[in-house]
Design goal:
homodimer, alpha/beta, Rossmann fold, 3 domains, 6-stranded parallel beta sheet, 6-stranded mixed beta sheet, about 45% helix, DNA-binding
Amino acid sequence: MKIESITITDIAKALNFSSSTVSRALRDSYQISEATKRIVKDYAKKNNYHPNLVAQSLKSNKSKSIGLLLCSVPNNFFAEVISGIESIAYNSGYHIIITQSHESQEREARNLDHLSWRSVDGLLVSLSSETMDMSKLQKIHSGGVPIVFFDRVSDCIKTHQVVADNIEGAYRLTKHLIESGCRNIAHITSSPGLSITSERREGYVKALTEYNIPVNENYIKYCPHGGMIMEEIEVVIQELLNMKQPPDALFTASDRITIGSFAFLHKKNIRIPEQIAIGGFCNFSSPELFNPSLTTIRQPAFEMGKTAAELLIALIESKRQETNFEKKILPTELFVRKSSVK
Amino acid sequence: MKIESITITDIAKALNFSSSTVSRALRDSYQISEATKRIVKDYAKKNNYHPNLVAQSLKSNKSKSIGLLLCSVPNNFFAEVISGIESIAYNSGYHIIITQSHESQEREARNLDHLSWRSVDGLLVSLSSETMDMSKLQKIHSGGVPIVFFDRVSDCIKTHQVVADNIEGAYRLTKHLIESGCRNIAHITSSPGLSITSERREGYVKALTEYNIPVNENYIKYCPHGGMIMEEIEVVIQELLNMKQPPDALFTASDRITIGSFAFLHKKNIRIPEQIAIGGFCNFSSPELFNPSLTTIRQPAFEMGKTAAELLIALIESKRQETNFEKKILPTELFVRKSSVK
DNA sequence: TTGAAAGCGATACCAT
DNA sequence: ATGGTATCGCTTTCAA
């Protein structure tokens, strides 16, 4: 830290070696005799030496840090992802620098700047719902910084992607709603531009189609801010309720939207599931405690964080340019509870 | 980042100045002519120069980073705290390095090591429930690293503390339970050593005493792991249920314990609040959606993070040694809902 | 097997 | 007002 920090030079002086020798001894260089190594290492350990990571970074142009770009920390899904990332990063000697976009493209861009000035070794990215312009990210990537996408991914950059099986999850939930007797299933989802939005929508459409239920575009509602703003959720639900044929079920596409919709139905004293059934993507820890217990599709968030971090660190540390990128698709889990069973 | 990064030396060469001049011009030194400043700054901006923070860190022995020591990220309370910290840090040019102790003292100690090797400028600390030994933290502190405690604090180190008004919150909730007709109020709480534990307990005792209800030590149950392990919650509740006079109410002392207890009562088909009322500290986002809606004391977690970060950054950047430390006590909010009203 | 010296990028002291 | 040079701590090439 500050006071009690011994440097290589200190050791060198104390033992009458050169700093190069000390450096090499500590890194177990083959050119150093065992005897010297022992002396140096013993002294280092006794005096609680630890390399100054900042100096190492400057020299090596590696910071052993990973930048993290996501929407919001106080969000069950992302908090779990972070925990997964941290578990891997910790073991590999990396630390993570977290930035939140709050679903704002502009903030995301500024965060990217900050991260690049910090000279992070790589980036884990989940895009904001506003993001249209990938040029900054592309520039950084082509500048040699490895990137791994998770959750909200983009094909504009050729790299690894880690996502949940959104299509399958959405498909299974929608199918469940249909089999539960619902026919007018609305879908409330995030910004249209996001990968998760189109994938979840695809699963929804697939299930409807399979059961010969026509897809009604008016039943698909987008929340441009991904549900960060409660009002946008309330507005679209109100629109649905005002329709001539209001939906008999809601399939909600994210943590915030699911909880927000559920809360709004509560507030409006709409009986769940009798009047409207509901189920959606949600990583809330205890949906079974809700009133009624809430049907959810759970994403393997911790796992997603772990996988993304592993892939990124591998990219960072690989000697040769990786060209064979993979899209990891992690399975989701459907938990059917009372909120969706008519 | 890597490729497109211009250095001061590059600018100096391009403009035929010395690097000292360029450095001074960029930092607006009074010794540099306006003309030169303009030339240098224009060139810097045009070529997208940004100082290499690693080099600055090495030189200045300041990393513009803050270490964060807490139990667990995927926990509503801490996630909100992190968000608060981030909001302040971001604006002040600091980044935060997050480490999780998972309530383990040993892991906490290793995290401290890692953070100190990273030469963080300061530390925001919420102790793990196991932590007895403060010597490492003390050493770091006396080594000159500013520390601010939040939530789970300790008086072993003289510094700022930011906490919720635990006594008052616990007092009001307990009082509410009493007024709601409960007489045998059990208290399920974290590890006995934690500051939050003794404070919340104090509020609980205060309310009981005020109503001439004897304090029954058997009604106070500790979870050494702070409820990280579901089993420890189940065990103590089962003990309570097995008593000759089982409690008619539970006052639970943390996010995890509150949710865990509620879930266990559910599982055991115990009617809430008729058989047992329940209420507790909890920063869950939607306790009103629970079945029944859950009475909670909410801590101003975001605010706590902000305040702690502000205090820490002030400490870091203050020239003179601070001696006048304060304990910020932030108000809590009691939300009475159905789970506690007999 | 070991040492001297250069260099990573920015800064500050000492000259001029 | 500007330039030369040493320094932060560590690594690495080149010499010996």
